[in-house]
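hi! just following up on the protien thing from before. the input was this:
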Amino acid sequence: MPKDPWLPSGFNLPDKNKTKRLLFEGDDWQIYSLMNGDSVMIAEEELGDRWLAAKFFSETVLKSFAFGSHRYWAFTSKASHFLLPLTACKSPNNKTEAISFSHAMKGSRKLEQDANLGDAVYAEQVSLLLPVWSLSAKVEDEIVMGRWLTGGVPVSTRSFRRLACIMEWMGQKNLCQVIETAGLIVPEDRQALCTDAIQTDLGSDSGKKIFTLTGRPALEAFFLEHVIDIVEHAENYKALGIDFPSAIAFHGPPGCGKTFAVERLVDYLGWPIFSVDSSSIGSPYIHETGKKIAEVFDKAMDNAPALIVIDEMESFLSDRASGASAGLHHVEEVAEFLRRIPEAIGNHVLIIGMTNCIDMIDPAILRRGRFDHVIEVGLASESEIQSLVEKLLGDLPCDDDIKVQSLAKALSGRPLSDVTFVIRESARLAAKAGKKIISNVYLLSAMDLLPTNDDKASGKIGFL
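and the predicted 3d structure came back as:
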């Protein structure tokens, strides 16, 4: 049950700041906002004494004062720093904030080995997690870290694969660094993966992963030449004035594999990814979209090397002269991209845009210097579909008499998303029938579930 504030609004603290309202509370502590925008933690005398004894604070930082018959300790924090309980489930906005939390955890463990940090208060200004020594059940530090990073998901850092999926924007290399900075151990089976990511950043040839793009050999060759080789042999290219890969724009019909190709590149590089799309950036309010675009670019540059993926480019970057997107706010959005793209590339952020409507894009965006590579990605050929079918079925238990070539021919002219749907649906049908392997009968049944060429698909299926 919520408590009443210990201090009234407008109460004068020892440093002359005035309280505004109660923000968070515990059994023997409360956090208030202040009239000047900062915040203050008020602790009962016994808790403050315990912090002093354990050297979490000195009396020059922690101020004693009396109100009524009670004595309290006060710690004031600037508005630019976190001061909140970990149970508030605030997650970091970038790698810098995550590293700051790691230092706080490590610093607290140097002072207090056994205290439960699960309900501690994060005081970023002094780089500490303040234990409150409550009677709540102890939470392992690995879960404390995972819960903070994810904004409330109780996942341990030992479950690295799951944590990395949730924290995809940060990238696996950076996530390893955050965990190790806190004094925690990255699981051994994930260390090799993180080492690969570091070697990719540094251009090392030892232990190098292999980039493949099954079913799209032309795209695979493009990424290898124009992105991966530049990243992995950075010194060679830098000596000739090429510091980082240029921005790329992919265009083609839905289902041709644009998103799939980008996802594979992201997996290979292991860099954090930041998305610009209508669901996360679009706003009906004037100037708000431009502001959100700027925030994405700033976060990506803070976490570089990183990727920014602009999905449905036509939503933000349509031709300003066409009249399709009238208004100064649209001109402002395009201008923000024009300014930010070269800046991001200069700060080691790879820009990849995707669109189904290349003719709608503003010519100023597509000119050299912004998107140096404008690549058309058409529907896969029969041979490309066959290689994808072979790859997908090769990972599953199948009948020996499956006619891969006939299946590829039947799927010719269809989006790659339809190919993955057929394989996945055939596996589902086989499992439903109690079978242990996929046979032709289930592949044919899955084919029958596809819309005819004259029909409109009801939604996106597969990896696009």
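The chain has a mean pLDDT of 81.
The chain has four domains: 19-77, 83-200, 217-376, 382-448.
cheers
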